[in-house]
Amino acid sequence: MVSKAFLLTEMTWPEVQQALHTVKIAIIPLGAHEQHGPHMVESCDAVLAEEMGKRLTERLYPQAILAPTINMGVSTHHIRFPGTISLQPTTVIAILRDMITSLQQHGIQQFLILNSHGGNQATLGVAVDMLTSELNVRIYYAKTTASAKDVMDRRIESKMYGHSCDREVSEALYLAPQLVRTEKLEKADYQEGRWQHLRPGNPLQGFYYYDEMTRNGCIGDATKASADIGREIVETALDRLATSIKEVM
Amino acid sequence: MVSKAFLLTEMTWPEVQQALHTVKIAIIPLGAHEQHGPHMVESCDAVLAEEMGKRLTERLYPQAILAPTINMGVSTHHIRFPGTISLQPTTVIAILRDMITSLQQHGIQQFLILNSHGGNQATLGVAVDMLTSELNVRIYYAKTTASAKDVMDRRIESKMYGHSCDREVSEALYLAPQLVRTEKLEKADYQEGRWQHLRPGNPLQGFYYYDEMTRNGCIGDATKASADIGREIVETALDRLATSIKEVM
Amino acid sequence: MVSKAFLLTEMTWPEVQQALHTVKIAIIPLGAHEQHGPHMVESCDAVLAEEMGKRLTERLYPQAILAPTINMGVSTHHIRFPGTISLQPTTVIAILRDMITSLQQHGIQQFLILNSHGGNQATLGVAVDMLTSELNVRIYYAKTTASAKDVMDRRIESKMYGHSCDREVSEALYLAPQLVRTEKLEKADYQEGRWQHLRPGNPLQGFYYYDEMTRNGCIGDATKASADIGREIVETALDRLATSIKEVM
Amino acid sequence: MVSKAFLLTEMTWPEVQQALHTVKIAIIPLGAHEQHGPHMVESCDAVLAEEMGKRLTERLYPQAILAPTINMGVSTHHIRFPGTISLQPTTVIAILRDMITSLQQHGIQQFLILNSHGGNQATLGVAVDMLTSELNVRIYYAKTTASAKDVMDRRIESKMYGHSCDREVSEALYLAPQLVRTEKLEKADYQEGRWQHLRPGNPLQGFYYYDEMTRNGCIGDATKASADIGREIVETALDRLATSIKEVM
Amino acid sequence: MVSKAFLLTEMTWPEVQQALHTVKIAIIPLGAHEQHGPHMVESCDAVLAEEMGKRLTERLYPQAILAPTINMGVSTHHIRFPGTISLQPTTVIAILRDMITSLQQHGIQQFLILNSHGGNQATLGVAVDMLTSELNVRIYYAKTTASAKDVMDRRIESKMYGHSCDREVSEALYLAPQLVRTEKLEKADYQEGRWQHLRPGNPLQGFYYYDEMTRNGCIGDATKASADIGREIVETALDRLATSIKEVM
Amino acid sequence: MVSKAFLLTEMTWPEVQQALHTVKIAIIPLGAHEQHGPHMVESCDAVLAEEMGKRLTERLYPQAILAPTINMGVSTHHIRFPGTISLQPTTVIAILRDMITSLQQHGIQQFLILNSHGGNQATLGVAVDMLTSELNVRIYYAKTTASAKDVMDRRIESKMYGHSCDREVSEALYLAPQLVRTEKLEKADYQEGRWQHLRPGNPLQGFYYYDEMTRNGCIGDATKASADIGREIVETALDRLATSIKEVM
After folding, report:
1. CATH topology for the B6-248 domain
2. pTM of the full structure
3. Does D141 touch chain F (CB under 8 A)?
């Protein structure tokens, strides 16, 4: 699907050596392994981050190279649902430190962490602060499709979305349809709780478990997802990310 | 200025013992020690967090108690300006762990970290995730006046604000005027740079030093600040914070 | 290729919940991201560990479940070759701790770390010692095909093998031929050095960089590899591993 | 009260920049947040360290600058009394490392940690050992008034003193009378116990909780305290500290 | 017993200074403190490592110097037997880091860790990987007598040996007979268990407690031990170690 | 020399098991490996701690058991003299944590750390604070002969003593004469410096290297040492330590 792009996992060392003549930035996909309700599989975020990473690397050819995907992340909120695996924030930072240190030895000085999972964002904020001064490199990070917020607002009907919802299922239907159980699509099965006072936009933030909010593990309404919505979100985000990276690189 | 409130620093142990009969939540002010341009002193965030903490504790009397203020925070962005002291994110988390562990031994199970400094937010996100499961307590956090966003949007003229700006100087003029050198108020002395692609709302986030953005260390226009603007922001935020805490407590 | 097996990355949480009725052990594939000479791509070990994991999980159905693959490992020896990424041993142990802790919360008490990369073995020895007592679980580990040592000795002609050699290329040709550049197969380009006194079987062990030993990053003679050799090694090892796990489970 | 002194918390960055032309040493006050019996508030040590710091900085003007106060310390011994907050020794060392590292970036190479709390002394001994070689700076530390030991011996009647006693209350009456509940002054309410074999001067040292020793949390006899005793202790100590610092600076 | 050798513990600093003119490698003996059945004392491994270290240092005079012995190690497997003390792998690595860092400051750049205890081997593998790149030194390690494997195979009758067995008791009878209770020699008191599937040579490795395997804490048959067998093993190993070190030094 | 005492290093596990019926406290000798001038060898502190430990354990028979000696300690001050090895304070604490944790599993709940080296004292203060609450045990510590301060004051002529001086050489002549080069006894070769303002009794404390103080690494006057002085110091201290332990045990 990806026509021409430097994918580190699929290259030999002489090929990497050759690519490093033009490469200026490494893209590190960061996902999660966590429940996505009855209609998406647990590797969803890892796969979406990798698929976005491949397409972005392709657009930035020959200046970008795609590093291996970090396929687990900080998923404490989801740990009560069967199958979720959560890394400590300190573990994610350790992985990033080791990856950046290694790639820096090969001559790369700029990094984009391409993150598909909201639960990783605070950890990335901390990681970028710490590792920038520790390692003297430039580190950027982006939520995979967050820059297409206007498209989401126009095309997503659900008032609240963000996890195994209209938006995420749409992205998956476009990028990796094998992640979706199309015959099991459900909307959120919400329940009352403390979380209602802790969502973004409220005066307080705080930790709650996802099952305090939704019995089936989804929010929004996945039955309204479509590959076409996914396509518009994804392609818009990729355009904007590619443009931004070219500006700072 | 504060009429009746449980302030832990100003109590003896028998007084604390008595207060614990009604106290349900501890409020931990978190500030920073960092440059605030030519017109505010470096303790600005620590003092504002403490002042907000006192007022909020007063409103929640006798259910809240104010813990000592953490008077330094994560200020890597400002480290190139003379006088800035920055704690590692891991240090801030260690302080919070020790404070919460100690207060938990006295019977307190709920905590609000009241943070005045944007640079601490990612660290708090991580801290709350980690410490909630480690210690089995409820932890909330809030940016001191962020819940008055609508008031800011109405009364602040500068397009970009957030550090030693119209908003922050206004809050200080109302809460702690000794922090402000009123004879030295300046607006931002911006310069071109990479930061323009990394502000909130852009596709990318990333680390930059504050002096890449502004030569004098301020943003916005502090000459337009007033105690009256400060009053409206502060009082609105305090009302909303108090209401929210009562709802979740 | 895998007919019926519990693959955690490809399941929804209700499917995991159902599987946990019979699952007694989680299999964690551990690989590496490192140079494999001019004829194999850098993800080789990660892919082989995952492929072995799938097949072993299939044989142990419905008692085993396959966890996500740890796709980087301890590759300090290879860091001087372009593209290699090496995790600190402490990072690998942190990942394992987090994975096992998470899966333990879902009721799993036995773990097999299925490792394809020699450079991870010491770290696993330490990890198993530490995590067994910390977490009170049973942890086993195995080099993916080491139990077919007799087959290797019979079918591999090279005196020294172990990395991007006759053996490893054979395994790849059988399990994941896309990893191999069949048009670029080379034998080792050895050079004299300190490493000759540090190979297994010598009185001393010690660290050396792989390029001190071989200029092209391979050992043995990959031109003698075949899918048929790979098949015999792999299938023998899978049989023996499955038998052993059933005995201890 | 302090006439002319560089107080970092009350300066803007251009003022700090100017001061750094003459500043050779930074003074870091270190206190504690812990019970002080029925007649002193819990912030006692933090406030006394800061007050001593201000006065010492004044005497060393323009060669010293006062850093923000570390307002909590190692108070494990007091944790069973309501309100006490104790930091781990490792946390205190982390704070000191971050502060010294930050100030070093502004050009300061000498540091005095001015500590008012006995429970911090061992941690400081360790911190100074570790940080001196890590950071290649000169670090001194002093108990705030310990150098006036002869004055204490002459003017304090209680045989055992050191915590919320004749000495400490006297210092507070002179430096920060708001810390003292003068209407509640009590002498120690001792009880028998293991601690009697563990006080300084005994063959053994060891950990005991303060409530094993004294029911009301004090030692000595605070009813004999006076501002005049405090004045002599404090001023003698300040003279001696200032002299010593000038000698080594 | 040792005629001429640089033993760091028995030298004054001027003597060390003199020795450093010829010394090229430091030998660090690493043992353990753990149960050795009814017929050997718990310091067995520490003493044997030190004795081997002395003899090896003598053979390498004047190019080697013997560092102090690390007299405890990783003994988790034995912790259920009275008296065993086990260090965490991270503790052993910390000790090695500190020792090597110190000796490096005196000008030594090569190190041999001479280890008598199998349970330390994985930790050493990790230590050598980490410390080599951290400290930029050359580190070798060796099991004390492992290089005499052919002698053991020829002279030891027990099929399984390795801990307080024919081999180890023989080594002790030759090197340090005071370690052996000759009147209490016993052979292993084995029992059935999971361990049978986890010994070297099996497809799986994994952790088990030693008392799952042997009730008296021994394996093999110590009644067949002799000083003569010990002599041949020890002297052969010393010859081979000395030769190897000269080759790489 | 020691008639009847439980020495853990010299016991088999069945003997330990038997001893544990009466043992109530474990004694952990802690020394150092550091320069002791031209007339004492570098293992001095480790050997003296162990010798004192043996004698004290004998006096407390059958209630005490002697753990293995920690033969290196915190010797940063001496690191510039050839041969000195210094452990980080965190390493010493890790060793103590592991030892106490292990011995606690065998049923021992009280510990005495018997320390011969002043440079370890601050670390012990921290260790005892941290480990007491972490592990819920009773931990005592003592400088080996500090309780005989009155004897020292009476019999030692040098004004300043404490390291390879009249006192320490006397102790060694009595306890372990092999440590002393009697033909090379020297008094201190002092030089002027910052250290003069940092000795105990001065207002300031702080770190300095030992060679800033004394060119030959000694203080005091070792030529005045005698085994008889050593005997009185040692025997007095042992009596007092034994009495104190019996009181708290």
Report:
1. Rossmann fold (3.40.50)
2. 0.97
3. yes
